[in-house]
Automatic annotation (TrEMBL), chain A:
The protein's name: Phosphate transport system permease protein PstA
Pfam families reported in the protein's UniProt record: BPD_transp_1 (PF00528)
Lineage of the species this protein comes from: Bacteria, Pseudomonadati, Chlorobiota, Chlorobiia, Chlorobiales
GO molecular function, one term: phosphate transmembrane transporter activity
Homology family: Belongs to the binding-protein-dependent transport system permease family. CysTW subfamily.
SUPFAM superfamilies registered for this protein in UniProt: MetI-like
UniProt cross-references to CDD domains, sorted A to Z: TM_PBP2
Annotated Gene Ontology cellular component terms: plasma membrane
Cellular compartment(s): Cell membrane
Main location as per UniProt: membrane
Transmembrane segments: 12-36, 227-248, 268-285, 297-315, 340-359, 371-389, 418-438
Membrane topology: Multi-pass membrane protein
UniProtKB/TrEMBL annotation, chain B:
SUPFAM superfamilies given in the database record: Periplasmic binding protein-like II
The protein's role, per its UniProt record: Involved in the system for phosphate transport across the cytoplasmic membrane.
Coiled coil: none
GO biological process, one term: phosphate ion transport
InterPro entries on file: PBP_domain, Phos-bd, Phosphate_ABC_transporter
Keyword list, A-Z: Phosphate transport, Signal, Transport
Family statement drawn from the similarity comment of this UniProt entry: Belongs to the PstS family.
Residues in the signal sequence: 1-23
MF-aspect GO terms: phosphate ion binding
Domain called PBP: residue spans: 19-247
Designated name of the protein: Phosphate-binding protein
Lineage: superkingdom: Bacteria
Classification via CDD domains: PBP2_phosphate_like_1
Length: 448, 271
C-alpha cells in the first residue's frame, strides 16, 4: 500500500469517527433539550393568584398581606362574571321550555370552563377534591381554558366517506340576545386581572409533598424514595461485589467451578430487569418475607442483585489491572496475602472499582421494573429512615411511568412528568459527578 | 472513602429530618388502575382526616388479587369480581376474600372525535372486536380501517368488557393492539382517527368521543339506572370482614363526603 492510499484511509476513518461522535452528541441534545425545557416549567412558570392561594392554604407559604390584596383585586375583577351568571340563571328560568333546554347544555359547558378557570362558582357545592377547589394555577393553562370558553370545538361531518375535520365556532353565537352575551368579551378582556399571573419560582416542587395525586405540590417523597433505593442497593451490592471480585481474582483456582461461576455472573448481567422484579417479589417478599408487603428493603435487595454482576465484573477488571510488580514487591517485603490485598491491591484498584459502582448506582436509581412489585407505590407519604424496613415508597422512575400512562389527568400534568424526569436525571448526574470527583481524588492520592 | 462516608451520612440525616415518623398502622392498597383515582382520593382524605397513612399501588386488578392472596396488601382494588381460581387460591392460603362494592362504573366505548359514528350496538362492537368487521364503512362510518385497541389480560376492565360485550368464548382479533392502562388507551384513541377503544367512564374527557351503545349514552344516570349495557361494579376486596381503619376506609363510600368524591371523579355512587 502506498503512502497516499494509507493517508486517505486514515483520514476517512477519522472523518467517520468524528461524524459518529457528532451524531451521538446531537442525539443526546435531542433527548436532553426537551427534558430540560419541559422540566424547567415545573419550577419556573407564570403562576396565578390561585396558585399562591393554594401554596398559602396548604403549606402556609407566601406573603399573607400581599395575597390578601391580590385576592381582593381578583375578586373585584371576577364580580361582573358572577353577576352575568346570576342574571342568566334568572333569565333561564323565564325562557320557554324548548329554548331553555337548548341553552342549558351549552350553559353547563360555560360554567364548567369557568370553574376550571376561577375555581368554584357561587352556587356550586364546595368540592372536596383539591383539584376542584382551585382555578387554574398556571397561566399557560388559563389561555387554553379561555380558548375552550370562547370557542366550541366542532367537527365537520359533511363528507360521509372521510374522517371529519376540526373547526372552531365562537360560543358566544349560541347566546346572542341573552344576558350572558357580554360575559365572553368581558372574560377575554379581563382574564389577566382575575388571575393576576406573575413569574414564580416554585422551588417547593423539589421539597413539597404531592397534593391530590400529583396534580399540585411537589415530588419530595419520590426524590427521597429514589435516594433510599439507590443507596440501599449500593449498601448491599458494593461490599458483596468487591468481596466476590477479590475471591475470583485472588483466591479462586482456575477450575471448572470457577469458570461456571464466572459465566453465571456474566449471564446474570444480561437478564432483563423485570425478571429481577418478579424474582424479588417471589423470593424476598413471598418466600423470605423480609417485609409484610412492598418495602424499601425488598426493593433495595432486588436492585442490589440486579447491579451485583456489573460491580463484580468492574471490580475484577480493576484488580486484574493492578501491575503484578506491586503484588510481588509487597509479598517480597514479607507481607501476608491478606495484607497485600488490603493495603496494596485494593487501594490501587479502588478508582476502577468505584467506576463500576458509579455506573451501577445510576442504574439502580433509574430502573423501574425491579421496583414495581417490590417497593414502589403510586401514592404514599415520605417515610423516615426507620421505616425503610417495612414501608413502601414512591420513587421517581416508577412515578414517571405512572403519571405518564395511568394517571387520570395525565394530559393536565405534563409539567410534573417533565419535572420528575429532570429531577431523576439531575440525581443520577449528581451521584455520578460526586463519585467521579471522589475517584479523581483517590487517583491523585495514589500518584502523590 | 471519607467523602463517600460523608455523602452517605448526609443522605441519612436528610432522610431522618425529612420524613415524619408515623404510626405503624399504615393501610396498603393495591390493584386496578380504574379504581385507582377513587383509592388515591380516599387515601388523601383518610390521611388528612384520621392521620392514618395509606399507600396506593396501581398495578392492575389481577395483581391486586395476587397481592391480597399473598397477604401483601390490606385492600385489593378490583374492577371485576374475584375469579373462582383466585378465590380457591386465596382459600388454600387461608385468606378469605370479602368483596365490597365501592362504586359503579360504565365502560365507555370511545372513538376519535373526527369519526362521525356516534352509536353502535353491542353486536356491532362485538363484530369489531372479534375481527368480523374491519372497516368503519360496514357500521355506517367513513371508509377507514378500524384500529382495535384493547387492554392487557391483567386488566379488570378488559375482563368486564369481554364478558359484557365480546363474550367470554369469542377470541378478540389478533390485530387488536394492547395498551396497559385506561390513560394509555385514551391517548392512543385521541391520537388515532380510526381507533376504537374502551375506558372507564371516569376517564372520558373531550379528547375522545364516548358513543351510545344500543342507543344509550354512557352517563352517571344511565349507569345508575342500569340502562347502559356496559356497566360493572368496582370492588374493594379485603381478607375477612374488615375492622378498624380498613373498615372505615371501605365504608367511606357511604358517607356524604365519600359520595361527593366519587361523583366528582366521574364515577357512579352505589349508595
Amino acid at each position: 500500500m502506498n503512502i497516499g492510499t494509507r493517508k486517505l484511509l486514515d483520514r476517512s476513518f477519522t472523518a467517520v469517527g468524528f461524524t459518529s461522535i457528532m451524531l451521538m452528541a446531537l442525539a443526546l441534545l435531542a433527548v436532553l433539550v426537551p427534558i430540560i425545557t419541559g422540566g424547567i416549567k415545573a419550577l419556573y412558570f407564570q403562576g396565578t393568584v390561585e396558585h399562591r392561594t393554594l401554596l398559602f392554604n396548604e403549606f402556609q407559604r407566601g406573603d399573607e398581606a400581599k395575597l390578601a390584596v391580590d385576592a381582593e383585586r381578583s375578586e373585584a375583577a371576577r364580580k361582573p362574571v358572577y353577576e352575568y351568571l346570576a342574571a342568566f340563571d334568572t333569565e333561564l328560568e323565564s325562557l320557554p321550555f324548548e329554548r331553555k333546554r337548548a341553552l342549558e347544555s351549552e350553559y353547563h359547558h360555560v360554567r364548567d370552563t369557568l370553574h376550571e378557570l376561577l375555581g368554584p362558582l357561587p352556587g356550586d357545592t364546595p368540592p372536596l377534591l383539591l383539584r376542584f377547589q382551585y382555578g387554574v394555577t398556571r397561566w399557560e393553562k388559563a389561555e387554553e381554558e379561555l380558548h375552550n370558553l370562547l370557542y366550541m370545538t366542532k367537527w365537520d361531518y359533511s363528507d360521509p366517506t372521510k374522517m371529519a375535520t376540526q373547526y372552531f365556532a365562537p360560543r358566544v353565537d349560541e347566546f346572542t340576545g341573552t344576558s350572558l352575551e357580554g360575559l365572553f368579551g368581558y372574560v377575554e378582556e379581563h382574564l389577566e386581572e382575575m388571575l393576576l399571573p406573575q413569574p414564580e419560582f416554585y422551588w417547593g416542587f423539589i421539597t413539597d409533598r404531592s397534593l391530590d395525586a400529583h396534580i399540585f405540590g411537589g415530588v419530595w417523597a419520590e426524590i427521597q424514595g429514589t435516594f433510599y433505593l439507590a443507596i440501599g442497593a449500593m449498601l448491599f451490592a458494593f461490599p458483596l461485589g468487591v468481596i466476590a471480585a477479590i475471591y475470583f481474582t485472588e483466591y479462586a483456582k482456575d477450575n471448572y467451578l470457577t469458570s461456571m461461576l464466572r459465566s453465571a455472573n456474566s449471564t446474570l448481567a444480561g437478564v432483563p430487569s423485570i425478571v429481577f422484579g418478579l424474582f424479588g417479589l417471589a423470593f424476598f417478599i413471598n418466600t423470605m418475607k423480609v417485609s409484610e408487603s412492598k418495602s424499601v428493603l425488598a426493593g433495595s435487595l432486588t436492585l442490589a442483585i440486579m447491579i451485583l454482576p456489573t460491580i463484580i465484573r468492574a471490580a475484577e477488571e480493576a484488580i486484574l489491572s493492578v501491575p503484578k510488580t506491586y503484588r510481588e514487591a509487597s509479598l517480597g517485603l514479607g507481607a501476608t496475602k491478606w495484607r497485600t490485598i488490603m493495603t496494596v491491591i485494593l487501594p490501587a484498584a479502588l478508582p476502577g472499582i468505584i467506576t463500576g459502582g458509579i455506573i451501577s448506582l445510576g442504574r439502580a436509581a433509574g430502573e423501574t421494573a425491579p421496583i414495581i412489585f417490590t417497593a414502589a407505590v403510586s401514592v404514599g407519604a415520605t417515610i423516615g429512615i426507620a421505616d425503610v424496613f417495612t414501608e413502601p415508597t414512591p420513587a421517581l422512575s416508577w412515578n414517571i411511568y405512572n403519571l405518564a400512562s395511568e394517571h387520570e389527568a395525565a394530559n393536565e400534568i405534563r409539567h410534573v412528568q417533565y419535572g420528575m424526569v429532570m429531577a431523576l436525571i439531575s440525581i443520577v448526574l449528581l451521584l455520578n459527578i460526586s463519585a467521579i470527583l471522589l475517584r479523581a481524588r483517590i487517583s491523585q492520592k495514589l500518584k502523590g | 472513602m471519607k467523602m463517600f462516608r460523608k455523602l452517605l451520612l448526609a443522605a441519612a440525616i436528610f432522610g431522618f429530618t425529612a420524613g415524619p415518623a408515623h404510626a405503624g398502622d399504615a393501610i396498603v392498597m393495591d390493584g386496578s388502575t380504574t379504581v385507582g383515582p377513587i383509592a388515591k382520593s380516599f387515601a388523601a382524605y383518610f390521611t388528612k382526616n384520621y392521620g392514618v397513612q395509606v399507600t396506593v399501588s396501581e398495578s392492575g386488578s389481577g395483581n391486586g388479587a395476587k397481592s391480597l392472596i399473598n397477604g401483601a396488601c390490606d385492600i385489593a382494588n378490583m374492577s371485576r369480581g374475584m375469579k373462582d381460581a383466585e378465590v380457591a387460591a386465596a382459600k388454600s392460603k387461608g385468606v378469605d376474600p370479602v368483596s365490597h362494592v365501592v362504586a359503579l362504573d360504565g365502560i365507555a366505548v370511545v372513538l376519535h372525535p373526527s369519526n362521525f359514528v356516534s352509536a353502535l350496538t353491542v353486536d356491532q362492537i362485538r363484530d369489531i372486536y372479534t375481527g368480523k368487521v374491519t372497516n368503519w364503512n360496514k357500521v355506517g362510518g367513513p371508509s377507514a380501517k378500524i384500529v382495535v385497541i384493547q387492554r392487557e389480560s391483567n386488566s379488570g376492565t378488559q375482563d368486564s368488557f369481554r364478558s359484557l360485550v365480546v363474550g367470554k368464548k369469542n377470541p378478540i382479533t389478533k390485530r387488536a393492539e394492547t395498551q396497559a392502562s385506561n390513560g394509555a388507551v385514551k391517548s392512543r384513541v385521541a391520537s388515532t382517527p380510526a381507533a376504537i377503544g374502551f375506558i372507564g367512564l371516569g376517564f372520558v374527557d373531550n379528547s375522545v368521543k364516548a358513543i351510545s351503545v344500543n342507543g344509550v349514552k354512557p352517563s352517571i344516570d344511565t349507569v345508575k339506572d342500569g340502562s347502559y349495557p356496559v356497566a360493572r361494579p368496582l370492588f374493594m376486596v379485603t381478607n375477612g370482614q374488615p375492622t378498624g381503619n380498613v373498615k372505615k376506609l371501605i365504608e367511606l363510600n357511604r358517607t356524604a363526603d365519600g359520595k361527593q368524591m366519587i361523583s366528582e371523579l366521574g364515577y357512579v355512587n352505589k349508595y
